[in-house]
Specification:
Blueprint: E1 2-7, H1 11-22, E2 27-33, H2 36-46, E3 50-53, H3 62-70, E4 76-81, H4 87-92, E5 97-100, H5 105-120, E6 135-140, E7 143-148, E8 152-158, E9 161-166, E10 170-174, H6 177-183, E11 189-193, E12 196-199, E13 203-208, E14 214-218, E15 223-225, H7 231-238
Parallel strand pairs: 1-2, 1-3, 3-4, 4-5
Antiparallel strand pairs: 6-7, 8-9, 8-12, 9-10, 11-12, 13-14, 14-15
Helix pairs in contact: 2-3
């Protein structure tokens, strides 16, 4: 059972997070707080596995709380905020995930799955030979860290940056989707939308309508839309049968 603590000063946000977590297996909500100072006290007392942490709230901000937790053996932190501009700092603090409000249930599930893996799995992986990129150097507060392509599960665009989701964490890299398309092997990681790449081996279910438009459900619980101009390429890469839009 994964023990989760929620920190948010918005009652409706708290209610929604409770509701979504209540539908997931293996989750126990052990407590809540509405400000950063109370959060630090209660997290120290309850020792949860995961903290869902708002950023802008009374008292200490969520970033300040995460920094304080980092000075000791801390729980996994998932930031939950209405503001995207904190993403770079959040991932520099090695957050398990960064969710934007209003939080989608599937993204929350993905974040919980990732936190669970981080709690039990070592952060190790081996690169595989490739004529494409084997990895990327990503800037963090303490310097640069090497992110192996073999670890990447999916990538999504965020303005001038790419959020690189691995098995255990998310990294932020200043690049474009077009540049990544030239550097990644499409046999492994395919571009499925103008703002998204997905590792083919992580796809567990495909929704597809009669016009051939698709949504990919990955093993992490993420749901990724396939752009209309990418649908045929993605279907071929996954070995899916073609769809005739005129078929009765």
């Amino acid at each position: 059972m994964m023990r989760v603590f929620i920190v948010d000063d918005e009652p409706l946000a708290l209610e929604w997070l409770r509701s979504c977590l209540g539908r997931l297996n293996g989750i126990e909500i052990v407590g809540e707080a509405a400000d950063g100072d109370a959060a630090l006290e209660r997290v120290a007392a309850l020792d949860p596995d995961v903290v869902l942490l708002d950023i802008q709230m009374p008292g200490r901000s969520g970033v300040e709380v995460a920094r304080a937790l980092a000075r000791r053996a801390r729980p996994e932190v998932v930031f939950v905020t209405a503001f995207s501009h904190w993403a770079a700092e959040a991932f520099e603090l090695d957050a398990a995930d960064y969710l934007l409000k209003p939080v989608r249930a599937d993204r929350l599930e993905e974040a919980m799955n990732r936190a669970q893996r981080r709690l039990v799995a070592p952060d190790t992986a081996l690169a595989t030979p490739s004529t494409f990129e084997a990895g990327f150097w990503v800037r963090q507060r303490e310097g640069l860290v090497r992110v192996l392509v073999a670890d990447i599960r999916r990538i999504e665009a965020d303005k001038d940056y790419a959020l690189i989701h691995t098995h255990l964490r998310t990294h932020i890299l200043r690049t474009t989707m077009r540049e990544l398309e030239d550097r990644l092997n499409p046999k492994d990681i395919v571009r499925v939308h103008r703002s998204a790449f997905v590792r083919l081996s992580t796809v567990r279910r495909v929704e597809r309508n009669r016009r051939g438009l698709m949504r990919l459900h990955t093993e992490d619980g993420a749901v990724v839309d396939v752009g209309a101009s990418y649908a045929k390429r993605v279907a071929a890469a996954l070995g899916l049968p073609t769809v005739d839009p005129d078929e009765p």
